[in-house]
Amino acid sequence: MNAAQGQRIPYAVFENIQFPILDITHPLFNASIDEQAYHLNCLKSAQSIESLKKMPGFIRNIFVKMSNVDNSYLSGMRTLLYKLGPNLSQGIKLGFRDKWAVKQTSFMGLRIRLRDLCRHQSKILVPLLKQFPDRNLCFFNIAGGAATDSINTLILIQESNPELLKGRKIEIRILDIDTYGTNFAKQCIEVLKQPGERFHGLDITLITIHYDWSEPGALQKECLERFGWIQICSSEGGLFEYGSDSDIVENLNHFFINSPADARITGSLIFDRARVNPGYLGFTEFIGVQIRYLGLEGLQRILTQTSWVLEEFHDIDTIYTLFSLKKV
Questions:
Q1: Buried b (16+ CB within 10 A) or exposed e, 122-144
Q2: Alpha-carbon span 113 to 100, nearest angstrom
Q3: Cα 106–Cα 299–Cα 272 angle in degrees, nearest 5
């Protein structure tokens, strides 16, 4: 354990590397967010991408390789690295590309997105936990990777209302095809349950389910097994940013039918092409990310094919929208 600005940093092991457990309340995490700098970076990014397009081909190819995109998306562990930011990741032995990328202001958006989504999920769950002290709590995290949003939502609740988590079973169920991020998430929970750590004494279990969102039948089974529990289903940087309309509809409908009346869905999506930051649009197309520019109107169009209604939404600069859905 290292000390940093008066708060310890717990570590878990990833491929024989000591990796910090991401805690959005840590001073070093908060110090890695400068919303004014991020806003200015968004304003300048359109000009930057135009300059990049004019560079010689071999330089552009180097830049694409430095973006660290795997199979047209960022892997769960690489996304976690960029969420940690330059301060919390200092002790990790990184290659040149990751050292460069983790310092880029553009990736600050991932940290803001995570922070704001966890705050929103905590806001949703606290009243339910107060109202139903005898109900257990289950997170379903689609394409959850290292489950940083579920873990940090629990951290926020534990800090503000620790009594709400005591005496009830808590499960985080990660539905993902990625095994690296999910295995690391398991280790994080085990570390955080040790004496002296945040979740010591709490009944928290993390379960991983191999899940392809184009075949959502497994979600039905998972929901029914915990039907009487408080349920929240999230997908940060996942289903709503990469899934097709039909995939999103099927997942929403499966969760609606098989979850309790007070269940919620939360997630992130990208602005539509007409409104998204042109630099972000140009950059993702330049490096080959197969992302969806769904936008809020696109989400609302999809919701007409479900029984979910938009409860709340929140924009992050000119790229991300965070939202929650509820039942009528």
A1: bebbeebbeebeebbbbbbbbbb
A2: 21
A3: 45
Of 103, 104, 153, give the one whose Cα is nearest residue 128.
Answer: 153
Contacts of 101-109 spanning 24+ positions with Cβ under 8 A: 101/66, 101/67, 101/68, 105/34, 105/37, 105/38, 105/41, 106/41, 106/45, 106/280, 106/283, 107/82, 108/32, 108/33, 108/34, 108/37, 108/38, 108/41, 109/38, 109/316, 109/317, 109/319, 109/320
Secondary structure class of 78 (helix, strand, coil): helix
Query: Residue 3 has what pLDDT?
Result: 47
CA distance 177 to 242: 14
The pLDDT of residue 53 is: 63
Q: What is the mean pLDDT of residues 175-180?
A: 92
User: How would you classify the pairing of strands 2-4 and 7-9?
Assistant: antiparallel
* Strand, coil or helix: 142: strand
Tokens of 312: 């709340």
Distance CA 14, CA 22 (A): 13
pLDDT of 247 strictly over 50 = yes
- Rounded to two decimals, the pTM is 0.91
* pLDDT value for 70: 53
Say if residues 298 and 323 touch (Cβ distance below 8 Å).
no
pLDDT at 1 over 50: no
How far is 101 from 122, CA to CA, in rounded Å?
30
Which residue has tokens 């029914």?
224
Q: What is the CA radius of gyration of the chain?
A: 19
| CA distance to 27, 114, 168, 279, per residue, from 120 (Å) | 20, 10, 21, 27
DSSP H/E element including 129? helix 108-131
Q: Dihedral sign, CA of 141, 247, 311, 276?
A: positive
C-alpha 173/C-alpha 141 separation (Å) is 6
- Helix (H), strand (E) counts: the chain: 13, 11
